[in-house]
Specification:
elongated, 150 residues, Helicase, Ruva Protein, domain 3, single chain, 2 domains, 59% helix, mainly alpha
Length: 150
């Protein structure tokens, strides 16, 4: 019975793409590598981290991160190296500084501009006088009554 439960747990456990030959001997460095690779996007799979992806490019990126950590880089230096090489698109959570601040602020700014424009339109519309409706002349009213009788 215990073997069945163990087998079910192993089947239900999440499958990570990190291969045994990629794992570092130092558990601390491996934990740092896993932490970094969960924040990096697989450039093939798009919305999957390199830690979860089975793509060859994701494997190359995982190995590159581990190389940088073994070489003595800090987490930030390793991420900066990857970003310098592949661009900021490789980050699953983009940075909010630099040119990206415009992208982060454009949504709220557009919403505010739309609300201001809607308010100005409604204020201008409320201040407009009622349109004058032209009345029918006596001859037109008589002609209309004649048409409606038919």
């Amino acid at each position: 019975m215990k073997r069945l439960i163990l087998a079910l747990c192993m089947i239900a456990a999440p499958v990570f793409a990190v291969q045994p030959d990629e794992v570092l001997d130092d558990p601390e460095l491996e934990a740092r590598a896993r932490d970094i690779s969960t924040g990096l996007r697989c450039l093939v799979c798009r919305n999957e981290s390199i830690d979860d992806s089975n793509a060859e490019l994701a494997r190359d990126l995982r190995l590159l991160v581990r190389e940088r950590l073994v070489a003595g880089d800090t987490n930030e230096e390793a991420v900066d190296f990857i970003v310098d090489r592949y661009g900021e698109y490789v980050l699953l959570k983009p940075r909010t500084g630099g040119a990206n601040i415009l992208l982060w602020l454009s949504g709220p700014l557009m919403m505010g501009a739309g609300l201001v424009m809607a308010g100005l339109y409604l204020r201008r519309r409320a201040g407009m006088p009622e349109p004058q409706v032209a009345r029918l002349s006596e001859a037109e009213e008589a002609r209309l009554r004649e048409i409606l009788k038919d």
